Amino acid sequence: MITELDIHLPLRQVLKEDARRKAVARELQISPKRVQGMRLLKESIDARRRPICKQLRLLVAVDEALPPAAPIERCYAPLATGARRVIIVGCGPAGLFAALRCLELGLRPIVLERGKDVTARKFDISPLHEGVFGLAQAESNYCFGEGGAGTFSDGKLFTRATKRGPVMEVYETFVAHGASPEILTDAHPHIGSDRLPDIIKAMRQSIIRAGGEVHFESRVCALLRSCGGTRVAGVRTADGKEWQGDAVILATGHSARDVYRMLQAEGLLLERKAFAVGVRIEHPQSLIDAAQYHLRPAEERPHGLPAARYALATKIEERGVHSFCMCPGGHIVPAATAADEVVVNGMSLSRRDSPYANSGFVVTVEPEDTDAFAAEHGVLSGIAYQRALETATSLAGGGAQKAPAQRVADFLAGRVSACLPSSTYEPGLTAADLNALLPAQVAWRMKEGLRYFDRKLRGFAGEDALLIGCETRTSSPVRIPREKESLQHPQLPGLYPCGEGAGYAGGIVSAALDGRRCAEAIAQS
Question: In terms of Cα–Cα distance, which of 31, 35, 33 is closest to 5?
Answer without folding.
Answer: 35
